[in-house]
Amino acid sequence: MSAGHTPDGRDTPDIPGPWVEFWDWMRGRLAAIGHGALFFLLTLPGIGLLLLILALMLPGPGLFAYGVGGNHNAKNIALVLALPALVVSLLLISGLLLVIRRLASLTRRLVGQWCGMPIADPYLPRPGAYGGNAGVRRRLGWLLTDQATWRDLLWVTVNGCVGWLLAIGPAALLALGAIGLVAPYASLGLRLLLIGAAAFGLWTAPWLLRGYGVFARSMLAPTQQAELALRVRQLSQTRTEALDTGAAEIRRIERDLHDGAQARLVAMGMTLDAAGQIIDTNPAAARALLVEARDASVKALAELRDLVRGIHPPVLADRGLADAIQALALDSPMRIQLASDADGRPPAPVESAAYFAVSELLANVSKHAEARQTWIDIRHTDGMLRIGVTDNGHGGADPARGSGLRGIERRLAPFDGVLAVSSPPGGPTAITMEIPCAWSSPKTSSC
Amino acid sequence: MRVVIAEDLFLLRDGLTRMLQAHGLEIAAAVDNGADLLAAVTSEKPDVAIVDVRLPPTFTDEGIRAALAARREVPGLPVLVLSQYVEQLYARELLASGSGGIGYLLKDRVFDSAQFVDAVRRVAAGGTAMDPEVIARLFARNTGNGNLAALSPREREVLTLMAEGRSNAAIAQRMVITERAVAKHTASIFLRLDLQPSDDDNRRVLAVIAYLGG
What we know:
Chain A is α+β, with helices and mostly antiparallel strands. Chain A has helices at residues 17-56, 59-67, 73-114, 136-145, 147-182, 188-220, 224-278, 283-311, 314-319, 321-331, 348-369, 403-412, 442-445, and strands at residues 3-5, 11-13, 335-340, 373-381, 384-391, 418-422, 429-436. By secondary structure, chain B is α/β, with parallel strands linked by helices. Chain B is built from ten helices and six strands, in the order E-H-E-H-E-H-E-H-E-H-E-H-H-H-H-H. Chain B has a six-stranded parallel sheet with strand order 2-1-3-4-5-6, sandwiched between helices. The interface between A and B is medium-sized, with 23 and 21 residues.
């Protein structure tokens, strides 16, 4: 085949347009058929696991049934062994249930990728996921009381009985067509029928794949009840964390005031008193004490200023998020470029959380990343405040290890805000925060 | 010298008034909000206005906006802004017009009345008085980029003191060098910041602005 030149200079095979279109169409069909076939293959381990579980349920009751009848040695031994057998079976079945969970999670992910229907995980959070150790009993309880575990089992069963038909259908029809083409001794009518079936399979493959996706979602997606339970759990957790953080913050402020400004004022009072006592007898020393008291007041003011910055920075109150971050950038030793399309202001708590999150991120960058430049991007679209912080440092930031990033997540969580980190080793590091919030128009914030 | 004061807290307004009077300055008006400040500077034509950043009704950066508005109303009006905290952002905005007669100080600076009155006089004469804290924070940032990187540590020290509004004599005293040496440093600073020869006071202001502009 000769090669032609397109205007942009790339070599393309010299095929007429309709053929290219047909090839694209064909590729889509074949991909759908392949994905269906892979789904079919995934049902096989499910069926195997199901059979294993059924087999494991036999020994305990079986031994019991055998032993309960009479009273000779073999029967007594069977009776004694029945309970341990039951326990061991239960443990093994739990393990298999976890494997089924893996299989179901894989199916969820693949349905999201291949059928364009992402399915959320329905499981309860692991015990000990938020610190602390969980024993075998708690973990067993967690696994066995989760409704999703039994729905997974149901899924494997139904999928093993009928789901696979939907998955393998197009591939099977295509195979029939192939048989129709090559089979000897077939009548023309039969051949045509088989080829027709193959064409039908080819034609309907994407719909059948989608159908399989809908079927999978109906069984694997969290039920509304599970979703609500998950939400309640998440809300009570973030509420507890927010309250804890707030209380810790207030304790810190109390301590800072007590050890800082308050102590200085006490010292100042004492110094002034001393000055008052000696002012007639030794004016020069009294003057020195007065200067000392004045210096103490300057220090107390400086400490109060720092404290106020930590509670709610004045520029944030004055000018809002973009200017406050600009002020941060001006104070930072790094080069920071700020882009903001946000005029108007988010609700004050969101604004404050976002500000401190950015402030912490910048501190992280200057501490760890060795970056030469940082870019900050603030946007508000569709009821979502998005802030991107990108640096050209050496990367390798990991929210699982860094307590700083975890702290920022905790800060954003009460607002349903999330943090996404992309930080390959070698950099660059891009951190995106998203906080859903309404936005007040600029008119209401200035007057 | 005639002064207009805008400060919403009575105790501070009263204290400032008495302190300035004690140093022989005349208080033309003492007001407690931005609108009254505008009226006072247009009617009284003071030599300098002293403005608190936080004023009613918003209690945010009202004072900065009032100060800038007053300077639009009365071009070249020297303004000294006082605040519980200083921000480079606001310092830049105040200096953005490129002319002198601007001061931006922490309220703590009034504790040293002699130095404070000195700053008021410098601003009234068309100079600048930037709080050392603004300058210190600039230094944390401006080590190693821009024009300022070309300055020697000694020249930087001179520029810092210049930004605070000190005269060559005062700088010489502070750095324990001769006034001739200071003059040499300032000439070198003007050269490195690429400031054309003009009247010395103006160039000092421009150097400070280049400095704050980062």
